[in-house]
Amino acid sequence: MFYSLNKLERGLKPYYKLSNNRLGFKSHKPRKHKNFQRYHVTNLDNNQKKVKKDSNVKSNDVDDDPSEKTVYLSNFEVEDKQKVIIEEFNKKLAKDPNDVQAWIEYASFQDQMHSKHLKQIIKQKKLSIIEKGLAANHNSIKLLEIKLHLLAKLLPADEFCQQVEAMIQKDQKNIILWQALIKMTRTSCALCKVSSILDLYVRCFSIMKQRSKQNPKYYDHQVLRLLFQCLIFLRHAGLWEQMWEIIRINLCLNLPLDHDTLKSINTIDEKVLINMEELVLTSKLPLNQLWLRIESLRESCHWTSVDLKKVDISLIGDERRLVSAEETTDFIYPTISKDSSFRLIVFSLLSLKVPLLPTRHCTIKDLELEDYSWCIDSLESVLPMIYSIIWKNELTSRLSDKSVIADLLEGKLISGPQYLKFHPAQESFLEFIRSVFHTVAEKLPPSQRTSILIWWLRLERLLVNIAKSDALCATNRNKKLKSTIKSFLKKAENRNNLHFYREFALIEYELGSLDSCLQILKTVIQSQDNSSLGHEDKAALFSLYRTILEILLMSNSEDFKLDIFKDIMKSLKIYVFTCFNYDSNMSVEEMLYNEILRFLMNPITDELEEEFFLPNIYCDILLCYSYLLHYKSNNFDNVDDILDLCDRCLMHCAKCERLQERFYETKVTFIQFYQSRVKNISNVLIKTVREALDKYSCNFLLLSTNALFETELPFWKWKIKSAKFNIWSILASCLAGRARITYLRNTGLSDTYEAMINKMLAFHKAVSTNEEVQDCPLLWKLYMLLLQEHNLCERKGEDIYYEAVSQCPWARSVYISASEVAPQNLPQIQDLIKEKGLRMHVTLEELDILRE
């Protein structure tokens, strides 16, 4: 008997279609497109053989491929069009060689004429065109900036500096040439040394001082901007003592103040510091960790020069703590125009790491800080993104989450002395900042004095919010803060200032005292005499009404104070018809609506540059009107009317940039309020924020709101658009990515968590090649922090160290962070710090001696 076995057929192989739209999958490797060949080599003998083999081929079948014909013709047509465009440019420029924009467009057109692989040839072609344009337009700033930008890409650093030095010899007054020379010297690893860069600043200062009498306001602004850049460079190099002495002497000279003002500052006792260092040295930590601990301890405790009359010279082991007159004399500048004192104070406080509160696009533009990426080295600069001074509710909670803030504070993103994280000199440095605020404010006119003190109170409110993640030191500091502000408000010059009471009430709100906050606002509002208020007092009082309405309406139903709300409604009605001459029989909503219409019908002027800390009365009127409509109609059916009213206000302010930016903030605030209380209209919010960011790309409220959208996106929708945005938008995206990672870690979504980490690594890699922002020290420190947090230092730490140091060779904090991710290179890092002349408090050799 024979048995037969039927063969089993192989089952069909499953076909998987992979695409970019599938979660967690990447499509198969795409085919490389063949480059189009303009010229072809054809072997005629082979063609003849093919024809002979196929004798049945008809003559009609031998025609060329029609698609190839169209390709060839289209390329020839492109060349013909390019020739026509070039002829048009030549005719236009021959007719009007002074048309600067035409020269720039002609240079930009070279990108379309040549292949992208021929970058050097394109740049050389552009340079020749720009140089011809400069020959016809000697005073064109735009053409000169483009020329310097192209030269920096084409030439090595030393040759570039030689050419710019030769140009400076012919035109010593040109600040653009000086800035280009300083920038190249600072960013070049081979040329960057503290002494050489300071020499360039001294030379530039001496020339700019001579020119200041011709056009005082213009040259004051240019010199103060140059002074600010020099102060930031000293801070980055770790030379805090020299930086503060320059600031102090300039403030004493220009405000004016007594020569010894701000000189006697209480810092940590040297003996206490030595005892703390001995504890560190006896901890038996590895040598690299010992060095980092000693460095961070000393840099956080030393920021003022030593007074030899008060300190024992034997306890001072660092000669750089002694600042001589020769180190400061060349940087002292007496301002000439009256408006320059306020700008000098703003620059001084920014140098001391006090962020602008709030930070607006127009403010950055007015202060000429657009090219500011290299100045950002510490976490304090981005704090207004984490905590919004203008508007805060549960929608912004993800960026200001305690775990997110704690990770940032623990990530060693703060360089030098600081007031955010607990350390032995934290309170001393904070008291120092407060004394600077109060001292300089007393020498200013009333409105400017109010602005500076509002800035200080907002800083205190920000610190109260940050301190919630550090409960150990929050309690004692908060008690001391309340007593400080109360004594401040008891002074005669501050007793009647409504702005100060509003900020004090908001501090109480941050401390968790809702009843105390409402009581302060209600008492101040009801104590005002509405018949004798000036314009500034009216604006301040409306900001109080807006604040109390926001707090009441945003509170939970259990905490809602109906009796207070009714009292405020009555007070607001009396205030509006008294101050703006309306009939008392009208409702409050009608009065406010008519006041908005009056604003829309009358011509307006833009805000003053120094008023960016003060509230705007028309924005507050619009918000109060919106809040009252919400209270009257719970369904809020007229939301479209409110949005239309906001759009009309935006159109009315089209020529007033500062005011229009405020109204964009107002519209975003209202939409967020509507979302939190009624229903989600995120599409309207996203559209409004994107529209506003197109015009005001450095506004921190808009950037933080946009970052919130990014935190809610899945990782495959998280796009890297670093080339299109400025440094602030990139930092906002970085914070959003970190918040997203923290959220995924806390929720336990491990796969998505790992994918988001990879996305952030790709984001940082793309940003590091962006020429506009790759010189930002904080961005590199965030990159290195990401490697540390996820144990990637062994694989990528050394490569990132080399890249970071090559892009930011002047920033001491970058070297300190690099020693964390590449500890095996610590001797090399220390050698580089010495070579560049940066501040180093202790060497490895000294540590060995101290340990013994």
TrEMBL record:
Family: Belongs to the NRDE2 family.
GO cellular component: catalytic step 2 spliceosome
Keyword list, A-Z: Nucleus
Region (Disordered): 45-66
A UniProt-annotated Pfam family: NRDE-2
Biological processes per GO annotation: negative regulation of RNA catabolic process; regulatory ncRNA-mediated heterochromatin formation
Top-level taxon of origin: Eukaryota
Record's subcellular location: Nucleus
Name of the featured protein: Protein NRDE2 homolog
Organism listed in the record: Nasonia vitripennis (Parasitic wasp)
